[in-house]
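Subject: Protein record for review, amino acid sequence with backbone structure tokens
How to read it: Take the token row as a discrete description of the fold.
Enclosed: The protein record, placed directly beneath this head.
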Amino acid sequence: QAVPAGSHVRLNLQTGAREAKLPDSNTENGDTREGKRRKRLGKVDVDSSSFTSQELKKALAKMKESEKAERKAHEEEVRKKFRPIEQLKEEFEKLNVKMETDYEIMVKLISTFNNSVSTLDEKVAALYDLEYYVHQV
């Protein structure tokens, strides 16, 4: 038997019967998770015969459109706050500052460690620095 969303369902251990209770009307609009979901979705008739496939497709398309709009708005907000890495690199080059990514630094440290010309102290320092970067990853 299907029960409406938000119903309280329990198993009576004495009789073995499953029981369902509709939520109280005063808790339905409260701050419960189900109440918030109902506020967001509104009252929906879940009887499958009440919706045609076209209506469902239109509703799904509207949901996708609103999701895309929200995603674009979020991306624009992020773009306003941050600059692209390429632009930052160009600005640092103008200031004669070389900016390296963690990957580039790790490659240098590995090559220092594998280099046969490096001294023992340089190899130990490279390993300590590598430990720091690998720990971040």
Remarks:
- The beta strands are 8-11, 18-21.
- DSSP finds six helices and two strands in the chain.
- The chain has a mean pLDDT of 80.
- Residues 98-136 form one domain.
